[in-house]
DNA sequence: CCTGTCACG
DNA sequence: GACGTACGTGACAGGG
């Protein structure tokens, strides 16, 4: 049928469909190969629903889905900043774009796009043509940029809200009719598309002006007549900018098309095309639903995981060998500009910074290396010192010649490092990002080879550059020790001669780029793209911010405690020596063992592999029932530990500039997905003993602020209840019961109102034991009861909760089959030792049982941390709210006293909903909160 | 550098 | 039948 009077054309804004689908759905992946597929799934559902709804007299006779093609359009030629503030397309969306086109065609709907034009222009052109031919048009979109087309038989339809937008709708939105919409837009501008408009004039004022003067041209010509001085001045001064804005917002009704309206006739979908496509996408329910609808048989869906099925491009096998002699030293702006051109051409660059040390909060930047292609790397020295003796009165602290000024280099590099369209690649990018943040540069977007390796291979090997280079490139990088030396004669990197520095530093960037080329494509094949993109990469900048905040620590409190501990230790030491009858080093397990078991002849002396007696706390505790000496040693050891590890060592970590302690989180430190904290470790500050807990009093909030602590209640047991599907436990959590008491009641048959602390304690030990992969021996040792009795507890536990044993068996079977286990969020933890024979198999089995539980909990708090900055930013006075620390199931914040309660509400909301929407837990997550002037009070 | 010990979740 | 066992970390001190 030829398009004409009585025809009804539907034009669907394809991009709007895609983005709506992408953002509405969790990041689904195709089961067989892990390809991201969420947006395609949503898109197909929307198309299906659209087709379903097209019945009755108002049904279209012609239809097309219109897409954008390419990012450069004629508008960019008019104004190079047009849409310049658009965020880059998410990486897991890009590969789905062609599939949405394929999907449209599979539904037998015309699918149109034209290079150099936006979808809006095609829609405008088709609308004009249809109108001229005497037909009606419905534009399925809610984009206000299309509202200028409304009228004369053209309507818009907001498919989400199911609202039709006619001339009245446009007038309600813009205050003028469709024919004057572009005039209003030209004045008001558009922050989304980066259309400048007239500063200070919004839609309301624009409509007022246009209605007064009739149209934009008249308004601009008669601007002198405007009474408000500011407005008048703007319109006169910014005339050019306003006219440009009008060109940008005006849609082109004369887009050259390579098809006609007649080509868009509505056709029924062909089951032989549509169903195989849906099956290929592995959309089970949609395939079935549509097959039923079409009266066809649903094809088989083969979604068995196919490792390597995709086989994306590997690192170029013809990459040149790694050769440190080939690297360039960049010494001036001209050379650097050349490298920046190369980076812009490439779209990505490996970056590495060289500094004077390892503490990112203290060290200075010495140089930057860049690599754009395997073998093509440079080093930009920026702060190398001239040769000669360092420091001192007569030392030479002058800069070495042949370096461009640091500020000049950073000015040139900043736009590149912050450019949305250029991917920055690093190995442990958090380090470089922290250094560069101190110089006012925020690196984004980025990839991190260390995090990629961790997402791929946690549990298989380390993720440091040396290990990765050895393993994947067969190359051992130049050891830093060869450059800066070791021990007393070690120098800082700024004392390294520049030629030598270039060889070392540029090689790191070269290796990083090659590792990225090798490892990045494997994310898909291993089906851990989502893990990397949602749990690893976005966490890194959050950790960087927390580390840079640091937490205030009061030196005087620590120092007073140190003195008190010293006195008490000296007293204990003399008592111990008196009891022993001789003087010895209490801190030496070897000497202590000899005193206890040889000299005093106590029972229970067991020698370890080194031939020394074991003198651990458990052994001393047994001995302490009979003798004073081991009891005193236990007290001495506790104080010694507190003093050396905490009250003394922590003082050394107070940053003199900030007065705060800045830990470092190692994102790849624990195989399960937990973080590790180092320099200092702030995840093991004492809490269990009264004396130890007082150390937390030294962690304080500044004047006018408080520390707030929020922690997940029993998160691992909740996850166990969920993954093992234990109804009784789930119910106990839903009812907010004391879970250990509930377990005791169930296992030991004691009614809750007759519960004793002792029985509850035993049940608690069993609950923890289960999470760790329980054994009779382990539980017996923990509870200090005979092994047979402990085994009896376990047997009864499994009798009551058979699902737990099933979970354990399934998990170990899965681990044996696959050599890895997984968290609910898809994180893989490799367990190669599960195949081992002997005692190591036991270790591996328990680790395999524990890892999904510990790892899922770790994933959940990571998700909360990643979402936290945005949630906090919405609070009033958000600049005064800081997330400072993470301790596995706890987050510590600093906030003004007045805002503390608000913060608890906001942060608790984020934490309790952190699993959503990716995982629907059968148990609620509960977060407890506390606040106070110091960490002891807040916890 | 390794081992034992002990701090945390 | 024997063996060795709770899971995950990091820091410090002693001793070779």
Automatic annotation (TrEMBL):
SMART domains: 35EXOc, 53EXOc, EXOIII, HhH2, POLAc. Signal peptide: none annotated. GO terms for molecular function: 3'-5' exonuclease activity; 5'-3' exonuclease activity; DNA binding; DNA-directed DNA polymerase activity. Residues 4-267 form the 5'-3' exonuclease domain. Its EC number is 2.7.7.7. Residues 327-524 form the 3'-5' exonuclease domain. One of its GO terms (biological process) is DNA-templated DNA replication. Residues 692-899 form the DNA-directed DNA polymerase family A palm domain. Gene3D superfamilies: 3.30.70.370, 5' to 3' exonuclease, C-terminal subdomain, 5'-nuclease, Ribonuclease H-like superfamily/Ribonuclease H, Taq DNA Polymerase, Chain T, domain 4. Keywords: DNA damage, DNA repair, DNA replication, DNA-binding, DNA-directed DNA polymerase, Exonuclease, Hydrolase, Nuclease, Nucleotidyltransferase, Transferase. Residues 347-525 form the Exonuclease domain. Residues 297-326 are annotated as: Disordered. It comes from the Bacteria. In addition to polymerase activity, this DNA polymerase exhibits 3'-5' and 5'-3' exonuclease activity. NCBIfam families: pola (TIGR00593), PRK05755.1 (NF004397). Single-chain monomer with multiple functions. This is DNA polymerase I. The lineage of its organism: Bacteria, Pseudomonadati, Pseudomonadota, Alphaproteobacteria, Rhodobacterales. The gene is polA.
């Amino acid at each position: 049928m030829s398009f004409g009077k009585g025809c009804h054309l539907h034009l669907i804004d394809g991009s709007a469909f895609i983005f709506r689908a992408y953002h509405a759905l969790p990041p689904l992946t195709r089961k067989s190969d892990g390809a991201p597929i969420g947006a395609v799934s949503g898109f197909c559902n929307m198309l299906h629903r659209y087709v379903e709804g097209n019945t009755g007299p108002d049904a279209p006779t012609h239809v097309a889905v219109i897409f954008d093609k390419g990012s450069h359009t004629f508008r960019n030629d008019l104004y190079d900043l047009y849409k310049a503030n658009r965020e880059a397309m998410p990486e897991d969306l890009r590969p789905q774009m062609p599939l949405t086109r394929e999907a449209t065609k599979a539904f037998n709907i015309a699918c149109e796009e034209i290079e150099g034009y936006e979808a809006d222009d095609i829609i405008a052109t088709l609308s004009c043509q249809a109108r001229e031919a005497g037909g009606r048009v419905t534009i399925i979109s809610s984009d206000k940029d299309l509202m200028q087309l409304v009228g004369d038989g053209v309507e818009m339809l907001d498919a989400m809200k199911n609202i039709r937008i006619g001339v009245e709708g446009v007038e309600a939105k813009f205050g003028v009719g469709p024919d004057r919409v572009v005039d209003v837009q030209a004045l008001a501008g558009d922050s989304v598309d980066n259309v400048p408009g007239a500063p200070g004039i919004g839609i309301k004022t624009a409509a007022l002006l246009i209605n007064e003067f009739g149209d934009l041209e008249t308004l601009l010509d008669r601007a002198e007549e405007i009474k408000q001085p500011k407005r008048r001045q703007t319109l006169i001064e910014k005339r050019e900018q306003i006219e440009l804005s009008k060109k940008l917002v005006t849609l082109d009704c004369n887009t050259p098309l390579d098809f006609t309206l007649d080509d868009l006739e509505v056709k029924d979908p062909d089951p032989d095309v549509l169903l195989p496509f849906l099956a290929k996408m592995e959309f089970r329910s949609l395939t079935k639903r549509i097959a039923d609808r079409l009266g066809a048989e649903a094809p088989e869906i083969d979604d068995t995981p196919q490792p390597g099925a995709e086989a994306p491009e590997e690192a170029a096998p013809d990459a040149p060998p790694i050769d440190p002699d080939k690297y360039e030293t960049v010494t001036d702006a001209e050379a650097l500009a050349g490298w920046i051109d190369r980076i812009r051409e490439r779209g990505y660059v490996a970056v590495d910074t060289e500094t004077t040390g390892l503490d990112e909060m203290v060290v200075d930047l010495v140089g930057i290396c860049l690599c754009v292609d395997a073998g093509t790397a440079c080093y930009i020295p920026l702060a190398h010192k001239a040769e000669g003796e360092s420091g001192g009165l007569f030392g030479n602290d002058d800069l070495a010649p042949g370096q461009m000024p640091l500020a000049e280099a950073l000015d040139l590099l900043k736009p590149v490092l912050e450019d949305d369209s250029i991917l920055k690649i690093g190995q442990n990018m958090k380090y470089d990002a922290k250094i560069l943040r101190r110089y006012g540069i925020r690196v984004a977007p980025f990839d991190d080879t260390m995090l990629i390796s961790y997402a791929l291979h946690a549990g298989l090997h380390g993720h440091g550059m040396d290990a990765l280079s050895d393993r994947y490139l067969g190359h051992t990088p130049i050891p830093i020790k060869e450059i800066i030396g070791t021990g007393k004669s070690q120098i800082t990197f700024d004392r390294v001669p520049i030629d030598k520095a270039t060889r070392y530093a540029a090689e790191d960037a070269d290796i990083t780029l090659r590792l990225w080329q090798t490892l990045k494509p494997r994310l898909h094949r291993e089906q851990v793209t989502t893990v990397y993109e949602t749990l690893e990469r976005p966490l890194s900048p959050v950790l960087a911010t927390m580390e840079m905040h640091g937490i205030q620590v009061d030196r005087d409190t620590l120092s007073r405690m140190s003195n008190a501990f010293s006195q008490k230790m000296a007293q204990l030491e003399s008592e111990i020596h008196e009891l022993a009858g001789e003087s010895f080093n209490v801190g030496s397990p070897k000497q202590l063992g000899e005193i206890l078991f040889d000299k005093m002849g106590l029972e229970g002396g067991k020698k370890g592999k080194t031939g020394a007696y074991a003198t651990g706390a458990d052994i001393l505790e047994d001995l302490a029932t009979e003798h004073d000496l081991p009891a005193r040693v236990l007290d001495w050891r506790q104080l010694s530990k507190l003093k050396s590890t905490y009250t003394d060592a922590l003082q050394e970590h107070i940053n003199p500039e900030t007065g705060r302690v800045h830990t470092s989180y190692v994102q790849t430190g624990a195989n399960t997905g937990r973080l590790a904290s180092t320099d200092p470790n702030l995840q093991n500050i004492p809490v269990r003993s009264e004396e130890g807990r007082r150390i937390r009093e030294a962690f304080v909030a500044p004047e006018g602020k408080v520390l707030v602590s929020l922690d997940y209640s029993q998160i691992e047991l909740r996850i166990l209840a969920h993954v093992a599907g234990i109804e009784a436990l789930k119910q106990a959590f839903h009812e907010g019961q004391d879970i250990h008491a509930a377990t005791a009641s169930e296992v030991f048959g004691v009614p809750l109102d007759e519960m004793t602390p002792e029985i509850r304690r035993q049940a608690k030990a069993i609950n923890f034991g289960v999470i760790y992969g329980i054994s009779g021996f382990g539980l017996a040792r923990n509870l200090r009861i005979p092994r047979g009795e402990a085994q009896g507890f376990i047997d009864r536990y499994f009798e009551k909760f058979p699902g737990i044993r099933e979970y354990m068996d399934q998990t170990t079977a899965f681990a044996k089959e696959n050599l890895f286990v997984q968290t609910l969020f898809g994180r893989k933890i490799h367990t190669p030792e599960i195949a081992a024979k002997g005692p190591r198999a036991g270790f591996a089995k328990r680790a395999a049982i524990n890892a999904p539980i510990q790892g899922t909990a770790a994933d959940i708090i990571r998700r909360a941390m990643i979402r936290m900055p945005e949630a906090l930013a919405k609070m009033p006075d958000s600049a005064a709210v800081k997330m400072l620390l993470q301790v596995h199931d706890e987050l510590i914040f600093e906030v003004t006293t007045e805002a503390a309660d608000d913060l608890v509400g906001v942060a608790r909301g984020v934490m309790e909903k952190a699993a959503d929407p990716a995982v629907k837990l059968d148990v609620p997550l509960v977060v407890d909160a506390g606040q106070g002037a110091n960490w002891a009070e807040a916890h």
